[in-house]
Amino acid sequence: MRNNTGYFGHRGWALGWGLGCSIGASLAWPERPVLAMLGEGAAMYGIQGLWSAARYRIPVTFVICNNAQYQILKIGARGLALPQAAAGRFEGLDLDVPEIDFVGLAKSLGVEAHRVTEPDELAERVRDSLLNRRLCLFDVPISRTPQSRLNYG
Fold first, then answer.
1. Interval 25-79: pLDDT, tens
2. Sheet arrangement for strand 136-141
3. What percentage of the chain carries pLDDT values higher than 90?
4. Residue 152: pLDDT band by 50, 70, 90 thresholds?
5. Residues near 55 by Cβ (< 8 Å), separated by ≥ 6?
6. Domains of the chain by range and CATH?
7. pLDDT band at 1 (very low <50, low <70, confident <90, very high)
């Protein structure tokens, strides 16, 4: 990448690649701050990467958008008109009983972590983490309201 900004993303169904990709981006371009925006379900596919980031002091700021469910998979099931989805049954796709304690999990892997519920506080904490090149995770609860489809703008 020639400029000083960059964005990595995809529009497919590859759950779980974001956490590792963000760590790799930080290793590839150590002079650039890295902000990773992840859903909690996708983060769980590669959560052990937090340990590696802590072990090797890789500065990435993670924001976990936490609606306590694999909502993307529910949307897919509805889109495919699966009988379980039509009946409102999504076995194994709710992550609320028990709810994952991302702050405790991240801390146990050596990562500074905070649960943040206010937008202004999140903006301030993310800005500080990026400016000071810290490894940090922010668990941000978001609405559980079901979406009927993906909206890419």
1. 999 999 999 999 998 888 998 999 999 999 999 999 999 999 877 677 777 778 8
2. 35-39, 61-66, 136-141, 112-115
3. 54
4. very low
5. 110
6. 18-141 (3.40.50.970)
7. very low
Give the list of residues 6+ apart from residue 134 with CB closer than 8 angstroms, or none: 59, 61, 112, 128
**If you write DSSP's letter for every residue of 66-123 in order, what string do you get?**
E-SB-HHHHHHHHHTT-HHHHTT--TT-B-BTTBP-HHHHHHHTT-EEEE---HHHHH
How far, rounded to the nearest angstrom, does the alpha carbon of residue 73 sit from its chain's CA centroid? 15
The DSSP secondary-structure symbol of 17 reads -
CA separation for the pair 56, 135 (Å, rounded): 10
